[in-house]
Specification:
about 80 residues, alpha+beta, two-stranded antiparallel ribbon, about 20% strand
């Protein structure tokens, strides 16, 4: 379980290099829409409800992610981008 502000989640998505959504989807064997929905904090993954909680507040509120696999892969890609 991981907490992150909605604003930070969106900043991570927008910082990803072009093609990253497709790369994450391919790496994790999910469809691209699942990855896009994840960063929009929608609660569906491959048509199945994903557990998360969004509490309203500053910076778009807090999103509590029950599965941070997509987020971790995005952060890994950003780390690779910073190194290259």
């Amino acid at each position: 379980m991981r907490n992150i502000t909605f604003e930070k989640l969106r900043r991570i998505k927008h910082a990803l290099p072009e093609g990253s959504i497709a790369q994450i989807a391919n790496d994790l064997s999910v469809d691209e829409q699942t990855v896009r929905n994840y960063f929009g904090a929608h609660n569906y993954k491959d048509g199945v409800l994903v557990e998360f909680y969004r509490e309203q507040g500053p910076q778009g509120g807090i999103v509590q992610l029950s599965d941070d696999t997509i987020l971790n892969r995005a952060l890994q890609i950003l780390g690779e981008k910073m190194v290259s």
